[in-house]
Amino acid sequence: MSAGVIAMEDAGFIIGSYVLTFAVIAGFTWRVLRGGRRLADRIDDDDKYWT
Amino acid sequence: MTPPSPTRATEAPAEQVDGGARSGTGTFATRMFGIATLVTMGWLVAFGLGFSPADRDQEEAVRIMYVHVPTVWLAYLAFTVTAACSGLYLFTKKHSLGFDRFAGASAEIGVVFMALSLATGMLWGKLTWGVYWQWDARLTTTALLFVSYVGYLAVRGLGGSHDQRAKRSAIIGLLAVLEIPLVHWSVRLWRSLHQEATVLNTNGDVDMDGLMLFSLFVGVVAFTLLYVWLLLHRSRVMAMEDQLDDQGLDRAIDARRAEATS
Q1: Verdict on whether the full-model pTM lies above 0.90
Q2: What's residue B167's pLDDT?
Q3: Residues 119..148 of B with a Cβ closer than 8 Å to A: which?
Q4: Chosen from B234, B250, B251 to mutate, greatest number of chain A CBs within 10 A
Q5: Nearest chain B CA: its distance from A37 CA (Å)
Q6: How many H helices and E strands in chain B?
Q7: Alpha helices (H) in A1-51, listed in sequence order
Q8: Are B179 and B19 a contacting pair, CB within 8 Å?
Q9: Using one digit for the tens of pLDDT, what is the confidence trace for B126-184?
């Protein structure tokens, strides 16, 4: 197996690990922010300690 | 003639409704944190996949380290914050639910980071060791730590009052954190396939190329910013969930009282 082929095989794992990381983080972030927006209009602004 | 609106949201000025609905849990500070996180994540990709050199032994696989190592460190930090907030809830006179919500939010983020660390570690293992998984001391104790915090989150989801939830999850949070030293020292306590600590080692000698160390530093900064940003948002969402729970309970009690008196 040539060094080039090994490098190409490695690229899938390396780029895949970054894609997986950012995809999971994006999914979790989207879930948190969507939950926040959905609940925010059901609560008085006075009751939101961060406003 | 416009019919009277039954909801509070439509009675409020349009500007206020739009602002509230759009902002959700965001503030100026969280937006700044969000922008800083995105910028450092961009740097992480540039240094991790581009500027950083290949390693002499691991070759290109070392690039996975720049996401694998920060996620596991931040998971440790998240679980330590969970334990600290659990202790503050249990051992302060006020028993503030704010501590409990921070503990829960931090554990949730820690579980996500730990899952990522396990997944990226498996990809690195396949390239370096030739297998995705080995029942090695470090890998097994890490998996055990992950499962413990999944259990912690499951316990938080059980029924009962907010105080009951806070008390039982705080006890688990204080016990589960004791696994972290075991995970960290597992490579020394048992013969392990996993390498020993390169940066956080006992002799304080960091045997790493400068650009590699900087790439790792960028990763740690990026994931730390992300952790703080997510912690603020998630704890605020939890505060709103608790408040809506309380409102629902108040309404149910009022309805029951009305039934009893009619």
Answers
A1: no
A2: 95
A3: 119-120, 123-124, 126-127
A4: B234
A5: 4
A6: 9, 0
A7: 3-40
A8: no
A9: 998 889 998 988 999 999 999 999 999 999 999 889 999 999 999 999 999 999 999 98
Kindly report the average pLDDT of chain A as a whole number. 83
Indicate the residue of A17, A25, A45 with minimum beta-carbon distance to B123: A17
Amino acid of residue B131: V
The letter for the amino acid at B124 is W
Contact at CB, A50 and B25, closer than 8 angstroms: yes
Using a CB-CB cut-off of 8 Å, the residues of chain A touching B20 are 40-41, 45
Q: Is the pLDDT of residue B1 over 50?
A: no
Per-residue pLDDT at B13:
42
Q: Is residue A5 part of a domain?
A: no
Per the domain annotation, does A50 fall within a domain? no
* Range(s) of the domain holding residue B201: 67-209+227-243
Centre a 10 Å sphere on the Cβ of residue B163 and count the other Cβ atoms it contains: 12
Residue B186 is predicted with a pLDDT of 84
What are the C-alpha distances in Å from A33 to residues B30, B43, B118, B153, B208?
12, 24, 25, 19, 38
User: What is the value of ipTM here, to two decimals?
Assistant: 0.86
- Whether B23 is covered by a domain: the verdict is no
**Residue owning tokens 């961060």:** A50
How many domains are there within chain B?
1
In angstroms, the CA B81 to CA B110 distance is 10
Instruction: Calculate mean pLDDT across residues B108-129.
Output: 95
Mean pLDDT of chain B: 85
Q: Count of domains in chain A? A: 1
Q: Which of B10, B233, B238, B245 to mutate to test the interface with A (most CBs of A within 10 A)?
A: B233
